[in-house]
Amino acid sequence: MRCLKQNVFPKSLMVKSPDNSIRSIKAAISATRTFIRKRIRKATMNLEALRSRVCNIDDILSVIALNEIRSDIIEFLKHREQFYYQSSKQRQARKFEKLLKHSSNNKVQQTENRSNKHDMNKIIVNLSDRLLNPHEISLLKKGLNFNINRHKLTPFNVIPTLEPALNILPNDTANELRNKIMNTLLHQKPHNPNINKNEYYALKQLREDKTIIITRADKGNTTVIMNKKEYEKKAKEHLQEGPYEQIKEAKSRTTFNKFKAETGKHLQSLKAKLGSSLWFVLCPKSCNPCRFYGLPKIHKNNTPLRPVVDYTNSPTYNLA
Q1: Taking Cα atoms as reference points, which of 50, 33, 34, 32 lies closest to residue 88?
Q2: Beta strands in 148-221 (DSSP E)
Q3: Contact 296/217 with Cβ under 8 angstroms?
Q4: pLDDT for position 114
C-alpha cells in the first residue's frame, strides 16, 4: 500500500514504456499499479489462509492436548509469530527505503538532464557590439522557431493569400468558400498572447536594428547575434575564394529563364516514363535564384561561416 501511495514501484513489478510518449508512459504506470494491487490481494489471501489454518490447529489442540500443554504451545507459536512478523516488517521497510532512495535519485537525475537540455537548447551567443537587455534576452531564449500568437487573424491578410487557389474553382464554390472563411474569421476567438509587452517592444527594437543579424549556429539550437558587417565580410570572403562565378545583373534573369527552359525540356523528354502526374510535380514552376547564407561555427576560432545554399523555389528544387 505504501508503494501505491508514494508512487514507488518494485523493479520486479515495473512495466517499462516502449517509447517516451505520454500515452505509453501512462499505460505502463497503470499496468504497474495493477500488478501491485494483485500482489497485495494475493498476500492478503495468503494471510487469511494462514489465520484459518492457525484456528484449525488451535481447535485440534483443544481436543487432543491438555490445557497446560496447549497454553505453552500457543505461547510459543505467538512468540515465533511475533519474531517472524518483526523480521519481515524490518526487511520490507529496508526494501521500501531503498526504493524511495532510488526513486528520488532518478527524479534528481531527470531534473538535471532536463535543466541541462533546457540550457543547451536555449543558449544565446552574442558576438555583436549590441548590449542585450533582459527583455531581449528573454525573447531570444525562446528560440528562432518560436511562433508568436496573434490576437486575431484579419481577413485582409488571409483572403488575398487564398485567392489564387479560389480562382481555380467554379464561381459558386469559390464564393461559398469565401463566405465560410469570412464567417470563420469574424467569429474567431482571440488568442492569449504568449509574450508580454516588454518582449513585443524588444522584438520591435531588434527588427529595426539594421547593424546586427540574428541566426542560428551551425550545430545545436543556439541563437547567434552577429554584426552585419562582419557577417557580410565573411560571406564575401567565402564567395571570392570558392568556385563561384558572378553573373551580371543585366543577364541574371536571362540565365535563370534559360536554366528553367533546359530543365523543363529535359523533363519533357522523360514525360512518358515519369507519367503525367509526376512530370507535373517535377516540372519547374519558377526560376528564382538560389539563396546563399552562412551559419556561424561558434565552436571554432574566429567563428567562420558554414556555407548553405537554399534551392527553394529554384528550377531544380523539385528534383532533389
Answers
A1: 50
A2: 212-216
A3: yes
A4: 43
List all residues 6 or more positions away from 281 whose beta carbon is below 8 Å from its beta carbon: 318
| Other beta carbons within 10 Å of 145 | 7
CA distance linking residue 9 with residue 32, whole number of Å: 7
* Half-sphere exposure at residue 319, Cβ-oriented, CA atoms within 13 angstroms: 12
On whether the CB atoms of residues 315 and 306 are closer than 8 A, the answer is: no
Question: The C-alpha cell of 102 is what?
Answer: 532510488
Residue 163 in grid coordinates: 485567392
Provide the residue ranges of all domains of the chain, joining segments of one domain with +. Answer: 1-106, 124-149+192-310
**What is the pLDDT, as a whole number, of residue 2?**
59
For residues 171 and 153, what is the distance between their CA atoms, to the nearest angstrom?
25
Of the candidates 100, 37, 28, the residue with the CA atom closest to the CA atom of residue 92: 100
Q: What is the pLDDT of residues 164-213, one digit of tens each?
A: 778 878 888 888 888 888 888 888 887 788 888 888 898 899 999 999 99
Rounded-to-10 torsion of CA 104, 109, 112, 118:
-110
Q: Are 162 and 181 in contact (CB under 8 A)?
A: yes
Cβ-contact 229, 289 below 8 angstroms? no
Q: Taking the model in full, what pTM does it have?
A: 0.51
- How high is the pLDDT of residue 6? 60
Q: Supply 318's cell numbers.
A: 523539385
CA dist., res. 97 & res. 1, Å (int): 14
Residue-by-residue DSSP string for 62-91: HHHS-HHHHHHHHHHHHHHHHHHHHHHHHH
Region 77-81: what's the mean pLDDT?
A: 76
The residue length of the chain stands at 320
Largest CA distance in the chain: 122
Q: What burial letters (b/e) apply to 182-198, b meaning 16+ CB within 10 Å? A: eeebeeeeeeeeebeee
Question: What pLDDT score was predicted for residue 105?
Answer: 59
